[in-house]
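Entry 14: structure prediction run for Phosphatidylcholine/phosphatidylserine synthase. Input pasted below.
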Amino acid sequence: MESPFPPFAPGRPDNTEAQAAPRIPIRQIVPNLITILAICAGMTGIRLAFEGRIELAVGLVIGAAVLDGVDGRVARYLKGQSRFGAEMDSLADIVNFGIAPALVLYAHIIHNAGAIGWICVLLYASGCALRLARFNTMLDDPNRPKWHSNFFVGVPAPAGAGLAMLPAYISFTGIDLDAPVATATLTGLYLLAVGLLMASRLPTFSGKGDNLRVRRDWAIPVILAVVLYVALLVSFLWETLTVTAFVYMATIPFSMRAFARRTKADMQAEAGAA
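Run finished. Output tokens:
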């Protein structure tokens, strides 16, 4: 009996090869499974937010961001990359980092701002969608200098989601403001600002460049710093995430300066060669 589901053939325009080889390696399925689990985490976070379980909802959105960082690395490690997986990862990103954080914040704070708050939510999600679409098109640009891989254009979607939920982190630390409408309006405007950062052309450090190296004598301090950061996350989760968000925002001017210097150096090199 013929299966009602089409053969799983990631990256292939037709099913000819899939029908000739009815079995595929598990390694081709695992990365896509992780992506699906990330979508489930983000969607469940939305549900929990509207049920009033905000801390768990925010935790699930953060978990979705972790899974998003894992699936690509797992795909490369297992050699299971495919066009299918890349497209599904982009679809997952708009759910997990464009829709989920905005709705979680809306349920938690922004709903008190009424229509203005909802407009901010819509604009944030739109900014995230535009950022992801631009990222996908830039991957196919053959004229893009190799060193540009050291930078993102705009704030990346996972980082944007982390920044967007900063008001929730602050509220979980015990800070309670007595002006719900004003707080909700300011939170909505902050969310809108994060969406604009994602859709902008501001260069931000990617952390994925080939030139990312650590001096041998700094390896042990870096390892200890990572252990300390994880320990702080476990012991003081919301306080640590709050500080992390502010530190990330503080790095943006430095990334802009580094990008401008590298661009100027390339222009001078081209002028000298001419």
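Notes: The chain has one domain: 24-140+148-208+215-273. Will compare against the previous run tomorrow.
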